Amino acid sequence: MKTALLILAAAIVAPCADEGDLFSTAVGPVTITPVHDAEMTIQGAGRVIYVDPSGEGSHKGRAKADLVLITTADADHFVPAVLARSGTKGAAIVGPAEIGAGLKRFTALENGKTIQFGDITIQAVPAYSPSPADAKTGRAQVRGNGYVLTYPGFRIYISGGTGLIPEMKALKNIDVAFLAVGAPGTLSLEDAAAAIILIKPKIVYPYRYGQTSLDDIRKQLGHAVPGVEVRVRDWYE
Predict the structure, then answer these.
(1) Which of 160, 159, 167, 209 is nearest to 189 (CA)?
(2) Which domains does the chain have, with CATH numbers?
């Protein structure tokens, strides 16, 4: 089911303080910039998207968001006071239903549902850490959102806080995957390698890795799947 998302104002795309990594799409370039921990900005197709703005990273010189995507209600991902200064006056907010109380211009997005944001299709996908009880019952309570952003000719997967889950098998034709790895509530390095095998993205960015060694990430994920490029960036500069 696809829901139209009301856009109150067209984005004016301004240069970022950090230019990030540039990708080609059928509607022009898309720039993805790591900010801090789980936070990133995605800029292209005339829109600026922030993911999980926490206020920990610098936004100096960055264009304000037209849309903010929240993966979870956890305090290091969802900071209501930061939302007000992250977005434009008409910025939309999308996330799990539990964060919506008191927020203006909020759209709750359940797993499997999509919204249209200009030329960009945004789908919420499951993000959770399986437990022994989940394995016994065959059911798992979904605890947050991951997202798949589809630009014409280009697809991005943002895992959010998740373990290795069977729903990853359904993720197809992913060009760039952001996999949260190495911190509590995220993929272990071994599971991240297994996730890469399941998803088969062209490029992987490990993120939200906390105190996990970048050298360990490079060693264990750098050659997990032949032909998949792993780009290790310092998200805590």
Answers:
(1) 209
(2) 10-225 (3.60.15.10)
